Amino acid sequence: MSKGSRIFTKNINGLLSLIYPRPCLICQSELPENQNHFCFLCLENLHFTDFEKYKESTSADELFWGRVKIQHVYSCLFFEKGNSTQQILHTIKYKEGKDLGVYMGELIGKRIKDNENYKSIDALIPIPLHSKKGFVRGYNQSMVIAQGLSNILEIPIINAVKRKNHHESQTKKNRFERWDNVKSVFAADQDKLKGYKHVAIVDDVLTTGSTLESAARSIKNVKPDQDISLLTVAIAK
Ligand SMILES: [Zn+2]
Question: What is the Å distance from ligand 1's center to 49 Cα?
């Protein structure tokens, strides 16, 4: 950008913030023009897990022990009812939170970029949405988070996991089969995984881990030696 257009952009942003003051998502105080979504103080006080600093396994890693082999599980923030993380997740999921989703993906990306555990990740796989929900909201929150990650880590997003359609997964099943089916709502595409050694599945929040487990299993079904990590904005405390 030239100096002239930089000054122009700066002035326009300054002018816009006079007309449309942008509040901090957490404390509602007016944001300085060079800050997005959070003021400095609220950004500093987000409930960071600091999992990237752990040498030993984290509570996120341990959640998957004995279920499916996962290389590393990273969640950026602790989620508790009523805390700022809940506000962030809610905004990404139900409101006009596309920009915030990308921003949170970039925040995760910056924290893990030079970390040994995540260095070998070479592709991102967003958890696909129920098509009905995506239609209402207009976007998939996992996809926008993956977009932010992709911006920082400079690796591609591949849609290698799909949701099986409702008809396929629910009709004419007995109770046991229906229960079993909850575990396999996803199907992976072997061709799209080709050439990638270590993929990361991306989701907004980690609670029981059943969705991520199911997605990881669908990948292992078609490519048993695929290394898989999981990246989420938040983990339930
Ligand atoms: Zn604030």
Answer: 19
Residues 37 and 52 in one domain: no
If you measure from the C-alpha of residue 35 to the centroid of ligand 1, how many angstroms do you get, rounded to a whole number?
10
Global pTM exceeds 0.70: yes
Unique residue bearing structure tokens 């080709």: 194
Q: Total domain count for the chain?
A: 2
Which residues make Cβ contacts (< 8 Å) with residue 103, sequence separation at least 6?
36, 37, 148
Apex 125 CA angle, 81 and 94, nearest 5: 35
- CA of residue 15 to ligand 1 center, whole Å: 21
CA distances from residue 98 to 26, 49, 125, 151, 223 in whole angstroms, order as listed:
17, 23, 17, 15, 32
Ligand 1 centroid–CA 73 distance in Å is 29
Q: Specify whether 99 is located in the same domain as 62.
A: yes
Domain limits for position 94: 46-236
Distance from Cα 41 to the centre of ligand 1, integer Å: 6
Q: For position 169, what pLDDT does the model report? A: 47
Span from the CA of 43 to the centroid of ligand 1 (angstroms): 7
* Distance in Å, CA 229 to ligand 1 centroid: 32
Q: What is the pLDDT of residues 131-172, one digit of tens each?
A: 665 566 678 999 999 999 999 999 999 999 999 876 554 545
Parallel/antiparallel/unpaired status of strands 123-126 and 198-206: parallel
